[in-house]
Amino acid sequence: MKLMIINGPNLNLLGTREPDTYGNKSFETYFSELQFKFRETELSYFQSNIEGELIDEIQKADTIFDGIILNAAAYTHTSIGIGDAIKAIRTPVIEVHISNTFSREKFRHKSFVSPNAKGIIVGFGLKSYELAIQSFLDK
Predict the structure, then answer these.
(1) pTM of this structure
(2) Sheet containing strand 119-122, strands side by side
């Protein structure tokens, strides 16, 4: 199985950004742990702070990967374009968030990703990604 993880804005700062909310581990370190844990699964990773690059990556991943794990970060709540990109592809997408977006500011309760996602995993810290991978493997 081939899975693509796509992370949006500011997730390149994991490990140093708001450690009380996001923890102390960089995503690169965590990604290496995921690759070790899921050795039978081909995992790829992309991160950008630029909305158009995320859309391009979603479109490129279509049909190449068996699934996409997307943490669009702040764009989740603002990007109709990312929502439309997910709707336009055939590859299933699972939306993930490290924090529980529903326990945060009200504007974080709206997602343009969710209506087109296969599922949503929120609030389990970095383990949200592992749960998403496992959900693809369990299908």
Answers:
(1) 0.91
(2) 42-47, 2-7, 67-71, 93-97, 119-122
pLDDT in tens, 8-58: 998 998 887 776 776 678 899 999 999 999 999 999 999 999 999 999 999
- The catalytic residue positions are 22, 97
Query: What superfamily in CATH does domain 2-137 come from?
Result: Dehydroquinase, class II (3.40.50.9100)
Query: Is-contact 59 52, C-beta < 8 A?
Result: no
Beta bridge partners of 47: 7
Q: Quick check: 6 pLDDT over 80? A: yes
Q: Give the span between the Cα atoms of 116 and 95, in whole angstroms.
A: 9
Residues 6+ apart with CB under 8 A from 42: 1, 2, 3
- Separation CA 91–CA 62 (nearest Å): 5
